[in-house]
Amino acid sequence: MKHLHKCDAPGCDQIIPRGKLMCREHWFALPAPLRRAINENWRERRMGAWSECVLEARGWLAQSRAPK
């Protein structure tokens, strides 16, 4: 059985598979440079920088007109 969790976007209850940070809709609502930074920091195992990028992404989605 796959491990599932909620999308990390504020207010989103969509269930997604383990290994994904956000549902497709919220992930692609983020600016491309921020998505790249999240992926790069994850690949390089820079967890502090990754965490900062994730917090920035959450804040960006909370302030944007991204889907809720």
Summarize the topology.
Layout: E1 4-6, E2 15-17, H1 24-27, H2 32-43, H3 47-63
Write up this protein:
- With 68 residues, the chain is mainly alpha-helical.
- The chain has one domain (4-63).
- Helices cover 49% and strands 9% of the residues.
- It is built from three helices and two strands.
- Strands 1-2 form a two-stranded antiparallel sheet.
- Helix 2 (32-43) packs antiparallel against helix 3 (47-63).
- The N and C termini lie far apart (28 Å).
- The model has no long low-confidence stretch (mean pLDDT 92).
List the uncertain runs: none
Quote the average pLDDT: 92
Helix content: 40-55%
Structural class by secondary-structure content = mainly alpha
Shape: globular
Count structural domains: 1
Tally of helical segments? 3
Portion in strands: 5-15%
Brief synopsis:
With about 70 residues, the protein is mostly helical.
Supply the key terms.
two-stranded antiparallel sheet, mainly alpha
